[in-house]
Amino acid sequence: MPTIDGFIDxxxxxxxRATIKTAPRTITELRKLGKAFPGTMxxxxxxxxxxxxxxxxxxxVGEDRIMCPASVRRKLTALRGLFSHAIRxxxxxxxxxxxVMNDNKALFDEGEGRDQWLRPDMEIRLRAALDVRExxxxxxxxxxxxxxxxxxxxxxxxxxxxxxxxxVLVALGTGLRRGEQMQLQWPDVDFDNERIxxxxxxxxxxxxxxxxxxxxxxxxxxxxxxxTCSGPVQPILGGGALALAGFLLRRYAxxxxxxxxRLASEPGHATRKRKPHHACNPRPFQADAIRLSRVHQYxxxxxxxxxxxx
Length: 310
Hints:
Blueprint: H1 4-19, H2 23-36, H3 46-57, E1 60-62, E2 65-66, H4 69-88, H5 96-103, E3 117-118, H6 120-139, H7 141-145, H8 164-174, H9 178-182, E4 189-190, E5 195-198, E6 209-212, H10 215-228, H11 239-252, H12 267-270, E7 290-291
Antiparallel strand pairs: 1-2, 3-7, 4-5, 5-6
Helix pairs in contact: 1-2, 2-4, 3-5, 4-5, 8-10
């Protein structure tokens, strides 16, 4: 009878690598759990799994912070899959992890959770911040262009000074995941049919899908293509852009921290007509809100989705 590590090496690791893109991260997580349950798989009991879950939920992960139920549930879900596969191969007859998760659902309930949506007024401030940044860079273009530490800054006649504003606007209008947008190629942008092709190789769902483009996204991408001509849509989109998007969100989505964009609180701007986001997205309820977690990477683990931004 194998241990968790032994089962990964002999069977489950091969299955994960063949079926999911996040196999290395999942295997690393499972090996950590293998240290918490060092015995053979048939000796791991429901009581052991439950005691481990209690200990994890009480573990401190920072100042005045403990492990959230979602993190514990994510680890148990990975372990449950391993045990389920062991049952299919007749190594064991019961899944103690599944029993713990099914019988103790309240243990992993986060209640209503946190508000992860970008309100319309927050979007207005974010857009205003992008405009302020563009104007500032155009004013100081000569100084920035001579600084070797700065990324590419386009000339004064270009539609955008750099990649940040078009990247954010495309993300807001399409809902592309971070990895999908970073690997997007111009042949995937179909202006005639007004849609973007997300290739199977870059899609988290491991299948090709098509994302419709609204008028704003089409206009932005056409202007951006005229500047970049060929190659990837976001040729220099990386960690610096992610950090900048996070800064813009933290500073300008919070009214108390945005003196440069107080114009957003004026009635004329607060009540201006906005193109509904459901013109680009299939779910109508996204018209008035955008996932905050998809604009700013607030969670430290690399699997966090930034669906609606960088």
